[in-house]
Amino acid sequence: MSETAVEPLGQQPDPLEEARDAVSEPFTDVYHNPRESSSRMGLEARAYAYRAGASLAFGMGNMVSPAVPSPHMTVYLDSTFSKQYSGKDKIRAYVWTPDRPRMGSRKGSKESADPRSRRPAVINFHGGGFVLGQGTDDGRWAMAVMQALGAVVFSVEYRLAPGYPFPTPVEDCADAVLQIWRRADEFWIDRDRIMVSGFSAGGTLALASWVLLADYKRWGYEIKPDPDLAKGMSELSVDDTGDDDTSAKGQDGKADPKVPQLAGLMLFYPLLDWTQSRPRKRLTCSKPEFTLSRTLTDLFDASYLYPYEEVKSQLDNPLLSPGLMPDDLLDRLPPVQLCLCEYDMLLAEGRRFYERLQARKKESGAREVEKAKHAWDKPSGLLYSPPESMGIEYGEAVRVMAGWIGREEGNGSGEDLSQREREREEQGNLRHPEA
């Protein structure tokens, strides 16, 4: 039997109620993380040790055939949203591109102004519990989307906790999306075909960074206009209905700067709800023994949620728990695709978020990988062999993303997919999750 679930996700029973029935001791949702009393230096030392091990494992994993090529270039982005840690060139992104000679060339030419000559782009955020990870961790995913969609892939190294706790990683990711979008001419990408992906914590940050950009004033942020971008933005003006207007006038009567309109969000096993404790989440999992260890999650949570006495009162903040965003923001989301894991403590919250999307009639999809642990597609040690289900799920994700940008998979032709999808659906090969 394949590891990959092909059955559509429908309305699911409440796993918490089922789990409560299965245990005899009283259930409590209060958890006192012992790492919250650790010094920041102590947490940093532990994080450093885990990072070294993870870096070695991922480095060796990327060498397994077919080996992941080194990024073609590295770009540096400014930190502008952070109130405490802002500065120039604070955020690094590794870039893979299928068409290197055209990067940054012919700026201002007729060809550069034609979006049909541009590449789509994927901005990716790695996982690691907001504490571990680096931009090359998702190299196999980068290769999949680059080769299938002809996309330029940016894998962002946001700054990590405990040195940079919430909200800095969210702010870094929002900065990355905004600045890559603004620098589209330099990277030869089409602003209308930028997608964002993320794995685990990176999936959280992908969605949370969209929340920040979609309504930045609500969260107390400011976006300064880009004079160079404004000169050539007439083609991005909103239609007469104003439904997609993201440049509402401020109190001073001046129009706010434009913000990116993403083509879609591809989220792999994200954390979407911090209001539930880790013990509660483990209890909802059908195989609690297969979830991430308490040693790891205690380190992750104490590092990212700091100072906890201040953060605990805002665990439902959509920048922290993007799965809890209000309906008015949910209604503005671009297309969303979820990839979830059966033996993951984050499965239940992923299902709930998907059900919200379906209830609001949003363009969305979700798949579950059977008998898979959290981050099943990533190295868990020095001996790594890419699982067959990784190719299946990456392929399905790419197929969905191709539909978002109207591009045929594999050849970068730009051919519209609507007829192809109709044919596949008639043949019974295209699976849509049930509402």
UniProtKB/TrEMBL annotation:
UniProt-recorded Gene Ontology molecular function terms: hydrolase activity
UniProt-recorded name of the protein: Alpha/beta-hydrolase
Record region (Disordered): 1-38, 99-118, 232-256, 409-435
Pfam families in UniProt: Abhydrolase_3
Organism: Cryphonectria parasitica (strain ATCC 38755 / EP155)
Bias (Basic and acidic residues): 108-117, 417-435
Keyword terms of this UniProt record: Hydrolase
Matching Gene3D superfamilies: alpha/beta hydrolase (3.40.50.1820)
Boundaries of every Alpha/beta hydrolase fold-3 domain copy: 122-376
